[in-house]
Amino acid sequence: MKYFLRKVGFFVLTLWAVVTLNFFIPRLQPGDPAELMVQKLAGKNAQLNPAQVAAIRDMLGTPTGSLWSQYWQYLGQLAHGNFGVSYTYFPFGVMQVIGQAFWWTVILVTIVQVLSFGIGVLLGAFAAWKRNGRFDTAVTLVSTFVGTLQPFWIALLLIYGLGYGLGWFATSGGYEDSTPGFNWGFVYDAISHGFLPALTLMIVTPVGWVLGMRNTMVLNLGEDYVRLAKAKGLPDKVVALRYAARNALLPSVTGFALALGGVLGGTILVETVFDYPGLGRLMGEAVGYKDYPMLQALMLLTAVATLLANLVADLLYGVLDPRARRAQA
Amino acid sequence: MGLRRTLVAVIAVLTSLTLLTTGCAGSRLAHEREARRNHSGGTGGMIPQLNLPAEFDASVGGLVNYNPYAPQQLVKTWLYEPLMVQDSLSCGVTPWLATKYTWVGSNKLIFDIRQGVKWSDGSAFTPNDVVTTLNLMKKYPAMDVNGLWTSAFGAPATSVTAQGDQVIITFAGPAVSKFSSILGNLIVPAKIYGKVGDPTKYVDKKPVSTGPFLVGSYNGRRLELDRNPDYWQADKIKVQKLVLQGNYDANQAVQMLRNGDLDFYTGEIPNPIKTFVDPNPQLNHVWYAPNGSTVLAPNLTRKPFSDVRFREAMAYGVNKQQASLKATYGLMQVASQSGLTLPAKKDLLPPGYALNGGASTILAYDPAKANQLLDAAGYTKGPDGFRRNPDGSPIKLTFAVQAGFIDYQAVADEVVSNLRALGIDISVVASQPDSVDALKKTGDFDIMINYMAAGCDYVNGVGATLATAQIPTKTTILGNVERYSNPTVDQALKNLNGETDQAKVKDEVGVLVNTMMTQYPVVPLFYAPARAIYRTDKAAGWPSAEDPYCNPQDNARIWMTRLSAAK
């Protein structure tokens, strides 16, 4: 019970810290949301219309009073589950807008992360099993090289090569002509639009898993229990997968959960390059427009996702590692 | 080896999936393009379809709102309409929902409302719709985006009433300079918007409008608008269907334009002649109309810019031609020091400057003259080779420029190298656009680039750069960034506010021009463009350098009535 209370207390404390930082950091930067919005609507070569700025300030209800009283007001709203109205998408609520973008990112990222994790771990395990062989050298070298590349740069290459050059894929947006919903036209449309963003992420994401898995696996292969298993005459497949790989997987699982939680940040650039209608693009836009309510909600979402993922990782750990289960019991 | 087999299987599945999707997507896109090509050309003088970029510049689709008073709306141009349309280049006024306007004195404006206009639900458009729309702005200041009821650029309105077919707006004082902005208000149906409380908070999903197009379909990304057969000037609209889709960056836009997936674009494209026109000069066209001026705004409260002789030297010592070449690829002409866009406004120049369409107001690059002026004014060079203030104090300046505004940065580099050649110690500091905005408010800068509007009322246009009342405050950016203050100018602007007689307007504008020509509060470099980047394979009649009948960027309503099917 004490353990449980401590965990919950920690959760609440972290959440409070996140909410507070979310509130203050964006407001410390220069710039006025209303002026910014008018300027963006009018374009760079336009004089700011003071009447319009005044009207937009009035519309967004740009807060009066000290930052401190705004902060208390914000906490009160949050307690009531009120995330406010988006500045960019006024008069729509923040949650309504996020709801539109949510599944795009969640589906894209889940597929990419699961596939990357699977491929990365497999490649890493195989490389370690055949360590110092030709395959291992190739995998390690390529991973190290690809790991230094920026995702948005890869995205640009793909757009020019596969998009404009060969014309195989759509280069922007999440879909084009079809009506969103569960119909084949749309699913097909969404896949053909999501392919390049997914491919971009697929090139970069497995790298960490490959290298991490290879290194832990190499360590595990040197352990006595592996040697014992081999001496017992167990088949290679069993030794590699059920013994060494299973143990080597443990740190990766924690890492995987954390990666799922923190994925929003990583997709901002890629989604922006592809004009993909997901949360990352939304976040980039919210920064650009100083859409404080939107930024706060997205950051909070990220934080909660990371905290939850941590919890899931803790639970999963018990399943994979019987020792952890016993220690808890 | 089991492990290897699993690996191979996974890779095989992935590869086949890739091939499957690529194959289909490729053929589908090609097919679509082919179909579009066959459709273009048109039959019976009609244009079957035009593709334009989305007017909604945010990324999340699926949120449907056609409310013209929301900050972001799906359609800005084609549904709701204004009373009249003013072209910012020629300043001509085209009757729209109103057929005529009359000023009674300078504080009463009367619009004659057009008869026979129908809302898209079939009901009649009446003066009451106009009155309701304008009065809602009084009740809900958030809706008053053009400052009808505030004292921005002229006296506030005191009442809006209907009298027969007329709508009468009265003001608390002279308000002639509010005219252009009043025309910016779009008229919404009284029976709907009058009942929704705060109109800015109303989500308008089924627009009832007067405009040339009706909402056809929207899937969250691609918005199709169909021609409104009952439009009050339907005979002038030749486009059957408008497709609004996508917010493109420069590279994407060029690709789309070249492929014919986009027919008209007003965004910034680096070197459009080379990237767009040259590949197919028959069909691809560019027109950059002079719409305002990009100016150097020195901080007049600081030395040495507080000295008019220094500013005069700077006006000659900056290579504007070269700056235009670097920033706009030479598409924009060197701007007139008068502050007016020439040749469009040449008739407003006072007699002293009017010769040859105002040729003498365009100051040529003359570094020798600039050096002479500086020497004569006492800015002598110190031992380090840099000039000093006449009082002997050193000059060390920074040029504040917005990082990421590539054209502005090119200008800053050119200007700084010109001034250094004159012996002035100045360097560029690039920072976030937000930070530069903050400098405009605090006034903590030496020199920066600013935009000077041309416009059709000179209180709002040139006046916003020169009026004492337009000096930015701690909280609000206003036009007079350089912080110029001159009672003669303020009086002229005040007079303009009450002036409807064009001859007298010209006299007062003359005061502004004389100030610009002798006081150099800002130094115009080159004109800022209103852009038209367009194709003529489907439609002809776009505004162009040969036929500059309207501002292509701001007056889409006008060019839509002039388009015809390509031959």
Explain what the structure shows.
- The complex is a heterodimer of chains A (329) and B (567).
- Chain A is mainly α.
- Chain A has 2 domains: 1-80, no CATH class; 94-328, Orthogonal Bundle (MetI-like fold), CATH 1.10.3720.10.
- Helix content of chain A is 78%, strand content 0%.
- In chain A, α7 packs across α8.
- The longest helix of chain A has 36 residues, at 94-129.
- Chain A is globular and about 85 Å long.
- The two termini of chain A are 13 Å apart.
- The model of chain A has no long low-confidence stretch (mean pLDDT 81).
- Chain B has 567 residues and is an alpha+beta fold.
- Chain B folds into 3 domains: 27-71 and 211-283 and 536-565, 3-Layer(aba) Sandwich (D-Maltodextrin-Binding Protein, domain 2); 84-193, Dipeptide-binding Protein, domain 1 (Alpha-Beta Complex); 290-529, Dipeptide-binding Protein, Domain 3 (Dipeptide-binding Protein, domain 3), CATH 3.10.105.
- Chain B has 15 helices and 20 strands.
- Chain B has helices spanning 2-39, 127-139, 179-182, 190-193, 250-259, 272-277, 308-317, 320-328, 367-376, 406-421, 433-442, 462-466, 487-497, 502-519, 556-562, and strands spanning 50-52, 81-82, 84-86, 93-95, 98-104, 108-113, 157-163, 166-171, 186-187, 213-218, 222-227, 241-245, 264-265, 284-298, 397-402, 426-431, 447-453, 523-535, 539-540, 564-565.
- In chain B, the strands form 6 sheets. Chain B has a 6-stranded mixed beta sheet, with helices on both faces.
- The longest helix of chain B has 38 residues, at 2-39.
- The radius of gyration of chain B is 27 Å and the shape is globular.
- Residues 11-43 of chain B have low confidence and may be disordered.
- The chains are: A mainly alpha (329), B alpha+beta (567).
